[in-house]
Design a protein that fits this description.
single chain; 165 residues; alpha+beta; Alpha-Beta Plaits; 2 domains; five-stranded mixed beta sheet; four-stranded mixed beta sheet; 9 strands; 27% strand
């Protein structure tokens, strides 16, 4: 019986691990070019992009991973901004957040702000990409100082970013 257990461990060790465990990304990608019927993002050569010509004949209509996340109300990142400094500089910080998202989307069109809520004097920003949430926290910290904390929720593939000053 011990030999069987050992054999299964060896077999598991030899298996390749998935590069990305995001359930919203199709495992093998799409076989052909596709476009998102909601946001207009185009999928070609294993990459999503924005700003290309709209869908041409023969392209498959799909919902991109970001739009799927938005429909499910399932963020990959949550950024919470709080503190007295935030109350004084809300407009400047919101401009920074919008600029960070726009710059991020140039490289990765799947990284978007899902929603921004004001909760008890704090701003809570939900994102479709964990990397975008991390970037927002890092850039706000660099520009405005304060305290920055990350908390990864590995079983849900998400990150919580908290900044305060």
């Amino acid at each position: 019986m011990a030999a069987r257990a050992h054999k299964s461990v060896v077999e598991e060790l030899g298996q390749r691990t998935a590069r990305n465990s995001d359930p919203y990304l199709p495992k093998g990608g799409y076989r052909e070019a596709a476009f998102c019927r909601e946001c207009g993002a185009v999928y070609r050569n294993k990459r999503w992009s924005v700003g290309e010509t709209m869908a041409s004949a023969g392209m498959h209509e799909v919902l991109c991973p970001a739009c799927l996340r938005m429909h499910d109300h399932n963020p990959a990142g949550i950024v919470t901004l709080s503190g007295e400094y935030l109350r004084q500089k809300t407009d400047a910080i919101m401009n920074d957040i919008k600029h960070i998202e726009a710059k991020f989307r140039q490289k990765n069109p799947l990284g978007r702000i899902m929603e921004i809520n004001s909760v008890e004097g704090s701003l809570v920003i939900s994102t479709t990409e964990d990397k975008l949430a991390q970037k927002m926290g890092r850039e706000i910290y660099k520009a405005h100082k304060g305290e920055l904390h990350y908390q990864w929720v590995h079983d849900q593939d998400m990150v919580r970013v908290s900044w305060s000053r």
